[in-house]
From TrEMBL:
Keywords: Iron, Iron-sulfur, Metal-binding. One of its GO terms (molecular function) is oxidoreductase activity. Pfam families: Aldo_ket_red (PF00248), Fer4_9 (PF13187). Residues 327-355 form the 4Fe-4S ferredoxin-type domain. This is Aldo/keto reductase. Gene3D superfamilies: NADP-dependent oxidoreductase domain (3.20.20.100). InterPro entries: 4Fe4S_Fe-S-bd, 4Fe4S_Fe_S_CS, AKR, AKR2_Oxidoreductase, NAD(P)_OxRdtase_dom_sf, NADP_OxRdtase_dom. It comes from Cloacibacillus porcorum. It comes from the Bacteria.
Length: 365
C-alpha cells in the first residue's frame, strides 16, 4: 500500500480509501470487509449520514481497536438542515452511530447549488470552526457535484483542509471541472479525494463489445476496473481514490490493483487506450445513473435506478428478456408524475422525469 501526505492535515493516508456507501446487506459480511481492508493497510474510511445504515456498520467494525488504525471521514447532511443548530445535532448523532468522540475529517456534503446557498446562509463555515474548537472534528472539507465555476468559488471562499470530487475515465470534465478542477485544487494546496472512480460500478456493468475488444486486444492484460484505477492514481494531484466495494472478492481485487499504485505509471499507449475506451462509452445511448439512490424514495414508488439499469442493459445488449422482466415489475416508470423531486437530489444532474419517459417507451415498446 502506498501512503501520501494529506495536505496540511499532518495525516499520512493510503491512496486506496474505502468508500462505505455500497456495503452488502449482511452486516457481518460488511464488518468483515471493513476490517480486512484495515488489516491490509487501508487507513482512510469515507461514509456519510445519508448512506443507509453505513455509519452504524462502520461504528461496529471500528470497535476492538480498529478505530485507532484508521482516519474516519463522514459528512454533514446539509440538505436536511433547516437551521444552524441542526448541523451540530446531526454531527452528534453521527458520532453516536460511529461510536467515536471525534472525526478526523468532517465534510459538508454535496455542494450542489441549493446546498451551497444554504451553507452560506446558515454560516456552515462558523459551524466547522466551532466543532474544531470543541474537538468533535479535526479537519474540515467538502464534497461537490457541481460546475467548475462553482468548485472554484467553493475552493477560494474558505480555508478548507480537503475536497472530494467525482472523477473517472468518463467524467473528465463535467463534474467540478474534472481534471481541470483537480489541478486547480492542487494549485491551492488542497488534497483531493476521488469518488465514483467506476461510476458506482456502471463502468463495468455496461461494458460494450467494442470496449471489451479494446481491452482484450491490448498487449498488457488488465481489467477495466484496473485501467480505471490506474488512470486515476497516475495523476500526481490525486491523493485518495475511494472504492465502494460490495464484496470481499472486490476488496481483494482492489488491494491487488493498488499494490502497483504510483503517479506516472501510464505509458503513452495506455493513455491512448483510455481515450479509445472513453469514445466507445460516449457512443453508447445510455443514462449516466450511478445507482447512488439519492433519488429515492419516490413519492409514486418508482424504482428509478432499476428502470435506468434495465434501459442501459437493453440498449447495450438488445436482450428482449430485459423488456419482459421490466414489464413484470410493479414500480415502473409509468407511475412518474413529473414532480421533479428526485432531480433535486441527483448528483449527476440527470433530468430524471424526462429520462424515465424515454426508458419506459423503449422497454414497453
Amino acid at each position: 500500500m502506498e501512503y501520501i501526505d494529506f495536505g496540511k492535515t499532518g495525516m499520512r493516508v493510503s491512496r486506496f480509501g474505502l468508500g462505505c456507501m455500497r456495503f452488502p446487506e449482511d452486516e457481518s459480511e460488511a464488518v468483515g470487509i471493513i476490517r480486512c481492508a484495515i488489516d491490509n493497510g487501508v487507513n482512510y474510511l469515507d461514509t456519510a449520514y445519508i448512506y443507509p445504515g453505513s455509519e452504524e456498520i462502520v461504528g461496529k467494525a471500528l470497535m476492538g481497536g480498529y478505530r485507532d488504525k484508521t482516519y474516519l471521514v463522514t459528512k454533514c447532511p446539509v440538505i436536511h438542515v433547516s437551521k444552524y443548530e441542526d448541523m451540530e445535532k446531526f454531527l452528534d448523532e453521527e458520532l453516536l452511530r460511529l461510536k467515536t468522540d471525534y472525526l478526523d475529517i468532517y465534510m459538508l456534503h454535496n455542494l450542489s447549488p441549493g446546498v451551497w446557498k444554504k451553507v452560506k446562509e446558515l454560516d456552515g463555515f462558523k459551524f466547522l470552526e466551532e466543532m474544531q474548537k470543541k474537538g468533535k472534528i479535526l479537519h474540515k472539507g467538502f464534497s461537490i457535484h457541481n460546475t467548475f465555476e462553482a468548485f472554484k468559488e467553493a475552493v477560494d471562499m474558505y480555508n478548507w483542509d480537503m475536497a472530494q470530487i467525482q472523477l473517472n475515465i468518463l467524467d473528465e470534465k463535467p463534474q467540478a471541472g474534472g481534471t481541470e478542477g483537480l489541478k486547480y485544487a492542487a494549485s491551492r494546496g488542497l488534497p483531493v479525494t476521488i469518488m465514483e472512480p467506476l461510476r458506482g460500478g456502471s463502468l463495468i456493468a455496461d461494458l460494450s463489445p467494442e470496449a471489451k475488444s479494446l481491452i482484450e486486444d491490448f498487449p498488457v492484460k488488465r481489467s477495466l476496473a484496473e485501467w480505471a484505477f490506474r488512470w486515476l492514481y497516475n495523476k500526481p494531484e490525486v491523493s485518495v481514490i475511494l472504492s465502494g466495494v460490495s464484496t470481499m472478492e472486490q476488496l481483494k481485487d482492489n488491494l491487488r490493483i493498488f499494490e502497483d499504485t504510483a503517479a506516472g505509471v501510464m505509458t503513452e499507449a495506455e493513455e491512448e487506450l483510455i481515450t479509445k475506451l472513453r469514445e466507445t462509452f460516449e457512443m453508447q445511448k445510455r443514462i449516466g445513473c450511478t445507482d447512488c439512490k439519492y433519488c429515492l424514495p419516490c413519492p409514486k414508488t418508482v424504482l428509478i435506478p432499476s428502470v435506468f439499469s434495465y434501459y442501459n442493459k437493453y440498449m447495450l445488449t438488445g436482450d428482449e428478456s430485459l423488456k419482459e422482466a421490466y414489464r413484470a415489475g410493479q414500480r415502473k416508470a409509468d407511475k412518474c408524475v413529473s414532480c421533479h423531486l428526485c432531480e433535486k437530489h441527483c448528483p449527476q444532474g440527470l433530468k430524471i422525469a424526462e429520462l424515465l419517459k424515454e426508458a419506459h417507451a423503449v422497454l414497453e415498446g
